[in-house]
Design brief:
With 326 residues, this protein is an alpha+beta fold. Among the domains are: 128 residues, MutM-like, N-terminal (N-terminal domain of MutM-like DNA repair proteins, Alpha-Beta Barrel); 95 residues, Orthogonal Bundle (Helicase, Ruva Protein, domain 3), CATH 1.10.8.50. The protein is built from nine helices and eleven strands. A five-stranded mixed β-sheet has the order 2-9-5-4-3. It has a four-stranded antiparallel β-sheet with strand order 1-7-8-6. The protein has a two-stranded antiparallel sheet with strand order 10-11.
Length: 326
């Protein structure tokens, strides 16, 4: 958190800084944990001063300011960061200020409560090397159903863990992985290489639906209130969460089962055991790679063998035979 919908909302909220000239750059001094700045705060400030912002974009969970010089300033909010065009919640956790000229907003702020965020400066070549397709997967809103399957289907990892791998698909984190899988009706522990084609198509459709719905509601602001839009307003999608942080509550879809929490890759996962049952999904799985699928003839032969074994057991152990009906 923030994930794709929150970071995209930030980018849209600061879009009017395009065309502005950066007059000054400040990294306020603080006794709190410092954020990571690359190559250094002084170097970034010197490089940014006098530059014009040519475009604002998003790369996975990162905000990217593209400058007229083709250099990029990449801000990664991580857990508690906000990119703002209005005054921050407080000054103690204010990490970066860009003084702007020639536009609607006089300043751009980066505020981070826990100090886990990063600010990085890249040349065009460095940016391509750092965030090329070998390092970062296709965006979750742009990937096709076929590409999604091709990138993940050979993996033996649980599907929920794989969805959060930014090298495979960029932008999905813990919150939206749980919500996507619930909408798709897929158990989070299901191995990727066990999903049939129809479930890959269903997963892709669920992914687009959930992410686009979250975007319309400007992201999710949780109980800790750490996320806010560029105008420092809360998101609204948390009002529509189906499973995330709802352990012990009734499922909003089936109205019967209770949401369950498990831990995967040291992260909490939430799902409905009725809407996302492993047995229902696994019954239609192809056999794992390297194993032959049972044919209908083989299955019938196995069933007949089991019946024969039961009859033989009745002959050899008459005492275990069920009593005859009166």
């Amino acid at each position: 958190m923030p994930e794709l919908p929150e970071v995209e909302t930030m980018c849209r909220g600061i879009a009017k800084v395009v065309g502005c000239r950066i007059q000054a750059v400040r990294f306020p001094k603080s006794r709190l944990r410092p954020i990571s700045v690359r190559p250094s705060a002084g170097q970034v400030a010197r490089q940014l001063c006098g530059q014009t912002i040519a475009a604002v974009g998003r790369l996975g969970k990162r905000v990217v300011l593209e400058l007229a010089s083709t250099h990029r300033l990449v801000i990664e909010p991580r857990m508690t960061g906000r990119v703002l065009v209005v005054g921050p919640p407080d000054l103690a956790h204010l990490r970066l200020i860009l003084e702007l000229a020639g536009g609607r907003h006089p300043r751009l702020y980066f505020w981070d409560w826990r100090g886990l965020g990063t600010v990085q400066w890249f040349s065009a070549d460095e940016f391509a090397r750092q965030f090329g397709p070998h390092r970062l997967g296709p965006d979750a809103l742009e990937i096709s159903p076929t590409e999604l399957r091709n990138r993940l289907a050979s993996s033996r990892r649980p599907i929920k863990v794989a969805l959060m791998d930014q090298r495979a698909v960029a932008g999905i984190g813990n919150l939206y992985a749980s919500e996507i899988l619930h909408r798709a009706g897929i158990h989070p522990a299901t191995r990727c290489n066990c999903l049939p084609d129809r479930l890959w198509r269903r997963l892709h459709a669920a992914m687009r639906h959930v992410l686009q719905a979250a975007l319309r509601d400007q992201g999710s602001t949780l109980a800790d209130r750490m996320y806010a839009t560029a105008a420092n307003q809360p998101g609204r999608y948390q009002e529509h969460h189906a499973v995330y942080r709802r352990a012990g509550e009734r499922c909003l879809r089936c109205r019967k089962a209770v949401i369950v929490r498990i831990v995967q890759a040291q992260r909490s996962t939430f799902f409905c055991p009725r809407c996302q049952p492993p047995s229902r999904v696994e019954a239609s799985f192809p056999a794992p790679f390297g194993q032959a699928e049972p044919t209908s003839a083989a299955a019938a032969k196995a069933s007949e063998a089991r019946r024969s074994n039961r009859r033989l057991e009745g002959v050899l152990n008459p005492a275990r035979r069920p009593a005859a009906s009166p």
